[in-house]
Specification:
Helix content: 55-70%
Low-confidence stretches: none
Oligomer: single chain
Radius of gyration: 19 Å
Number of strands: 5
Amino acid sequence: MKIVHFLFHFTTQEALSCMFPAVIFLSLALSKHFALPHRYDILLGVCLGTQWIMYRSGLETKDEIKVIAVFHLVGLLLELYKVHMGSWAYPEDAWTKVGGVPLYSGFMYASVASYICQAWHRLHLEMVRWPSLYWIVPLGVLIYLNFFTHHFIPDLRWPLVVLLACVFWRTGVLYSVDHQSYRMPLIAAFFLIGFFIWIAENIATFFGAWAYPDQVQMWRIVSPEKISSWFLLVIISILIVAQLKGGRKGKQKRVRNARV
Protein backbone atom coordinates (compact mmCIF):
# COMPACT_ATOMS: atom_id res chain seq x y z
CA MET A 1 0.00 0.00 0.00
CA LYS A 2 2.93 2.34 0.65
CA ILE A 3 4.12 1.81 -2.92
CA VAL A 4 0.62 2.50 -4.30
CA HIS A 5 0.37 5.63 -2.15
CA PHE A 6 3.78 6.83 -3.34
CA LEU A 7 3.02 6.13 -7.01
CA PHE A 8 -0.34 7.92 -6.80
CA HIS A 9 1.13 11.11 -5.35
CA PHE A 10 4.24 11.00 -7.54
CA THR A 11 2.22 10.42 -10.73
CA THR A 12 -0.19 13.23 -9.80
CA GLN A 13 2.64 15.74 -9.37
CA GLU A 14 4.33 14.57 -12.58
CA ALA A 15 1.07 14.94 -14.50
CA LEU A 16 0.54 18.47 -13.15
CA SER A 17 4.12 19.32 -14.14
CA CYS A 18 3.27 18.32 -17.73
CA MET A 19 0.51 20.89 -18.21
CA PHE A 20 2.22 22.74 -21.07
CA PRO A 21 3.24 19.56 -22.97
CA ALA A 22 -0.30 18.22 -22.43
CA VAL A 23 -1.81 21.34 -24.00
CA ILE A 24 0.47 20.91 -27.03
CA PHE A 25 -0.49 17.24 -27.47
CA LEU A 26 -4.19 17.96 -27.04
CA SER A 27 -3.96 20.77 -29.60
CA LEU A 28 -2.13 18.49 -32.04
CA ALA A 29 -4.79 15.78 -31.65
CA LEU A 30 -7.77 18.12 -32.00
CA SER A 31 -6.32 20.08 -34.91
CA LYS A 32 -5.63 16.86 -36.81
CA HIS A 33 -9.01 15.32 -35.98
CA PHE A 34 -10.88 18.38 -37.25
CA ALA A 35 -8.44 18.90 -40.16
CA LEU A 36 -7.97 22.56 -39.33
CA PRO A 37 -6.28 24.64 -42.05
CA HIS A 38 -2.99 26.33 -41.17
CA ARG A 39 -2.91 24.40 -37.93
CA TYR A 40 0.78 25.17 -37.38
CA ASP A 41 -0.25 28.84 -37.02
CA ILE A 42 -3.05 27.87 -34.65
CA LEU A 43 -0.62 25.81 -32.57
CA LEU A 44 1.70 28.81 -32.27
CA GLY A 45 -1.20 30.90 -30.95
CA VAL A 46 -2.15 28.14 -28.48
CA CYS A 47 1.44 27.89 -27.19
CA LEU A 48 1.79 31.65 -26.74
CA GLY A 49 -1.61 31.88 -25.05
CA THR A 50 -0.83 28.99 -22.69
CA GLN A 51 2.46 30.56 -21.63
CA TRP A 52 0.72 33.88 -21.00
CA ILE A 53 -1.92 32.17 -18.84
CA MET A 54 0.69 30.20 -16.88
CA TYR A 55 2.66 33.38 -16.21
CA ARG A 56 -0.35 35.48 -15.23
CA SER A 57 -1.66 32.73 -12.94
CA GLY A 58 1.69 32.44 -11.15
CA LEU A 59 2.43 28.92 -12.37
CA GLU A 60 5.62 30.25 -13.98
CA THR A 61 7.81 33.12 -12.87
CA LYS A 62 9.35 35.79 -15.06
CA ASP A 63 12.78 34.10 -14.79
CA GLU A 64 11.26 30.76 -15.81
CA ILE A 65 9.59 32.39 -18.81
CA LYS A 66 13.04 33.67 -19.79
CA VAL A 67 14.47 30.13 -19.56
CA ILE A 68 11.58 28.77 -21.65
CA ALA A 69 12.16 31.54 -24.24
CA VAL A 70 15.88 30.71 -24.38
CA PHE A 71 15.15 27.03 -24.87
CA HIS A 72 12.56 27.89 -27.54
CA LEU A 73 15.32 29.73 -29.41
CA VAL A 74 17.81 26.88 -28.88
CA GLY A 75 15.26 24.39 -30.22
CA LEU A 76 14.26 26.60 -33.14
CA LEU A 77 17.87 26.98 -34.29
CA LEU A 78 18.27 23.21 -34.12
CA GLU A 79 15.03 22.74 -36.08
CA LEU A 80 16.14 25.12 -38.84
CA TYR A 81 19.38 23.21 -39.24
CA LYS A 82 17.86 19.73 -39.09
CA VAL A 83 15.08 20.54 -41.58
CA HIS A 84 17.67 22.07 -43.91
CA MET A 85 19.72 18.86 -43.65
CA GLY A 86 16.65 16.70 -44.37
CA SER A 87 16.50 15.00 -40.98
CA TRP A 88 12.73 15.62 -40.80
CA ALA A 89 10.12 17.91 -42.34
CA TYR A 90 6.95 19.90 -41.66
CA PRO A 91 4.80 19.14 -44.70
CA GLU A 92 1.80 21.38 -43.98
CA ASP A 93 1.36 25.00 -45.03
CA ALA A 94 1.70 27.85 -42.54
CA TRP A 95 2.09 31.62 -42.49
CA THR A 96 4.46 31.39 -39.53
CA LYS A 97 7.04 29.21 -41.26
CA VAL A 98 10.69 30.23 -41.55
CA GLY A 99 13.04 28.08 -43.61
CA GLY A 100 10.45 25.32 -43.71
CA VAL A 101 10.12 25.36 -39.91
CA PRO A 102 6.91 26.53 -38.17
CA LEU A 103 7.66 28.82 -35.24
CA TYR A 104 5.54 26.74 -32.89
CA SER A 105 8.10 23.92 -33.12
CA GLY A 106 10.46 25.65 -30.71
CA PHE A 107 7.79 25.32 -28.03
CA MET A 108 8.06 21.54 -28.21
CA TYR A 109 11.60 21.94 -26.86
CA ALA A 110 10.52 24.73 -24.49
CA SER A 111 7.85 22.41 -23.08
CA VAL A 112 10.66 20.22 -21.70
CA ALA A 113 12.06 23.25 -19.84
CA SER A 114 8.53 24.09 -18.64
CA TYR A 115 8.12 20.56 -17.29
CA ILE A 116 11.44 20.77 -15.42
CA CYS A 117 10.52 24.16 -13.91
CA GLN A 118 7.13 22.84 -12.80
CA ALA A 119 8.63 19.65 -11.36
CA TRP A 120 11.19 21.77 -9.49
CA HIS A 121 8.35 23.53 -7.64
CA ARG A 122 6.03 20.60 -7.09
CA LEU A 123 8.62 17.98 -6.09
CA HIS A 124 10.94 20.42 -4.27
CA LEU A 125 13.99 19.37 -6.25
CA GLU A 126 17.51 19.86 -4.96
CA MET A 127 20.80 18.68 -6.43
CA VAL A 128 23.39 16.81 -4.38
CA ARG A 129 27.09 17.04 -5.32
CA TRP A 130 26.42 19.27 -8.32
CA PRO A 131 29.57 19.43 -10.54
CA SER A 132 31.59 22.57 -11.11
CA LEU A 133 30.63 25.01 -13.87
CA TYR A 134 34.09 24.38 -15.34
CA TRP A 135 32.84 20.91 -16.26
CA ILE A 136 29.16 21.31 -17.03
CA VAL A 137 29.30 24.42 -19.26
CA PRO A 138 31.78 22.91 -21.79
CA LEU A 139 29.89 19.62 -21.60
CA GLY A 140 26.58 21.32 -22.41
CA VAL A 141 28.17 23.20 -25.32
CA LEU A 142 29.70 19.99 -26.72
CA ILE A 143 26.37 18.16 -26.48
CA TYR A 144 24.55 20.92 -28.36
CA LEU A 145 27.24 21.26 -31.02
CA ASN A 146 27.21 17.51 -31.65
CA PHE A 147 23.62 17.78 -32.90
CA PHE A 148 25.02 19.96 -35.71
CA THR A 149 28.46 18.47 -36.37
CA HIS A 150 27.52 14.78 -36.61
CA HIS A 151 26.42 15.44 -40.20
CA PHE A 152 30.07 16.12 -41.12
CA ILE A 153 32.19 14.29 -38.54
CA PRO A 154 31.59 11.05 -36.59
CA ASP A 155 28.73 11.18 -34.11
CA LEU A 156 30.19 11.73 -30.63
CA ARG A 157 27.04 11.01 -28.63
CA TRP A 158 28.38 7.85 -27.00
CA PRO A 159 31.73 9.39 -25.97
CA LEU A 160 29.66 12.28 -24.60
CA VAL A 161 27.49 9.84 -22.65
CA VAL A 162 30.63 8.31 -21.12
CA LEU A 163 31.96 11.77 -20.27
CA LEU A 164 28.58 12.66 -18.82
CA ALA A 165 28.65 9.56 -16.60
CA CYS A 166 32.11 10.55 -15.33
CA VAL A 167 31.04 14.12 -14.52
CA PHE A 168 27.69 13.26 -12.90
CA TRP A 169 28.31 9.81 -11.41
CA ARG A 170 28.18 11.16 -7.83
CA THR A 171 25.35 13.63 -8.45
CA GLY A 172 21.88 12.89 -7.14
CA VAL A 173 18.55 14.68 -7.12
CA LEU A 174 16.40 15.02 -4.02
CA TYR A 175 12.65 15.19 -4.45
CA SER A 176 9.68 15.08 -2.07
CA VAL A 177 6.49 13.08 -2.39
CA ASP A 178 3.82 13.59 0.28
CA HIS A 179 6.34 15.17 2.71
CA GLN A 180 8.84 12.30 2.39
CA SER A 181 12.20 12.96 0.73
CA TYR A 182 13.67 10.56 -1.81
CA ARG A 183 16.94 10.49 -3.72
CA MET A 184 17.62 9.34 -7.28
CA PRO A 185 20.89 9.25 -9.26
CA LEU A 186 20.75 12.16 -11.68
CA ILE A 187 21.87 9.92 -14.56
CA ALA A 188 18.78 7.77 -13.97
CA ALA A 189 16.59 10.90 -14.02
CA PHE A 190 18.18 11.95 -17.35
CA PHE A 191 17.37 8.57 -18.87
CA LEU A 192 13.80 8.39 -17.56
CA ILE A 193 12.92 11.86 -18.84
CA GLY A 194 14.56 11.09 -22.19
CA PHE A 195 12.60 7.83 -22.44
CA PHE A 196 9.24 9.49 -21.80
CA ILE A 197 10.04 12.29 -24.25
CA TRP A 198 10.68 9.57 -26.85
CA ILE A 199 7.20 8.19 -26.11
CA ALA A 200 5.83 11.72 -26.46
CA GLU A 201 7.72 12.06 -29.75
CA ASN A 202 5.92 9.01 -31.10
CA ILE A 203 2.59 10.56 -30.12
CA ALA A 204 3.56 13.89 -31.68
CA THR A 205 4.61 12.37 -35.00
CA PHE A 206 1.43 10.26 -35.05
CA PHE A 207 -0.57 13.49 -34.84
CA GLY A 208 1.51 15.08 -37.59
CA ALA A 209 3.63 17.51 -35.55
CA TRP A 210 6.46 16.67 -37.94
CA ALA A 211 7.54 13.65 -40.00
CA TYR A 212 10.80 11.76 -40.26
CA PRO A 213 11.76 10.58 -43.76
CA ASP A 214 10.50 7.03 -43.05
CA GLN A 215 7.15 8.40 -41.79
CA VAL A 216 6.18 10.47 -44.84
CA GLN A 217 4.21 7.72 -46.58
CA MET A 218 3.01 5.91 -43.47
CA TRP A 219 3.49 6.52 -39.74
CA ARG A 220 5.80 4.14 -37.95
CA ILE A 221 7.43 4.10 -34.55
CA VAL A 222 10.34 6.48 -34.02
CA SER A 223 13.68 4.69 -33.79
CA PRO A 224 14.62 3.86 -30.17
CA GLU A 225 18.04 5.36 -30.97
CA LYS A 226 16.35 8.75 -30.54
CA ILE A 227 16.21 8.09 -26.80
CA SER A 228 19.94 8.83 -26.61
CA SER A 229 19.38 12.15 -28.42
CA TRP A 230 16.67 13.18 -25.97
CA PHE A 231 18.81 11.91 -23.09
CA LEU A 232 21.50 14.40 -24.11
CA LEU A 233 19.09 17.23 -24.89
CA VAL A 234 17.40 16.87 -21.49
CA ILE A 235 20.76 17.48 -19.87
CA ILE A 236 21.00 20.92 -21.48
CA SER A 237 17.53 21.76 -20.12
CA ILE A 238 18.39 20.65 -16.60
CA LEU A 239 21.72 22.47 -16.66
CA ILE A 240 20.00 25.74 -17.59
CA VAL A 241 17.20 25.35 -15.04
CA ALA A 242 19.57 24.19 -12.27
CA GLN A 243 21.73 27.28 -12.74
CA LEU A 244 18.60 29.46 -12.59
CA LYS A 245 17.38 27.81 -9.40
CA GLY A 246 20.82 27.75 -7.79
CA GLY A 247 19.80 24.50 -6.08
CA ARG A 248 23.22 22.88 -6.30
CA LYS A 249 23.38 21.35 -2.85
CA GLY A 250 20.72 19.55 -0.90
CA LYS A 251 20.55 20.28 2.83
CA GLN A 252 22.56 17.72 4.76
CA LYS A 253 19.66 16.72 7.02
CA ARG A 254 17.42 16.15 4.03
CA VAL A 255 20.16 14.13 2.30
CA ARG A 256 20.50 11.85 5.33
CA ASN A 257 16.73 11.30 5.62
CA ALA A 258 16.13 10.72 1.91
CA ARG A 259 15.18 7.25 0.71
CA VAL A 260 17.04 5.97 -2.34
